[in-house]
Predict the 3D structure of the following.
Amino acid sequence: MKISWQTESQTEHAWFVLQRRENSKEWTDIYRCKGAGTTTEPFSYGYSDHSVIPGKKYRYRLRNISYSGEIDSSGVRSVPIPGDPSARSPRFFLKSVYPNPFNPRISIDLYVLQTGRVRITVHSLAGKCTDIISDKLFAPGEHRIHWEPGDLPAGIYILRMTSGTHSETRKLLYMK
């Protein structure tokens, strides 16, 4: 799902925060990017939400945050995702990893479509496996896993999730 927006000008604009909500759940920040401050130049922004499930409906809103902390929210847009959730071939997909950057703990949200073994590992940029977070059978549904890197040094790591031939990766930034 590609989400894009444009500005014709900006005044004292610090951040954009894209939020998503499923059904009656709370709003979740899924993307944050810097605004352009004060400018009369047009800007284009975008984000690809890869963690949507076919057959579900999502609501999105954009929040504009000024340098003084004022928050202005856009209208809510409902977006039904076409398709049958059972037709998706992967057994899982990674919904979100937050906060990122993180210290001392990160949360990993995944959605399992069909029962299967999911292996979740963390790797250094050199490719060395630094930790195995989970390697077990997951039932269908939403799951949240937490990870604390312990004595690992601050830096960039790669989170890798695999099940059968399907895998997903995310970049993590651990700050001390």
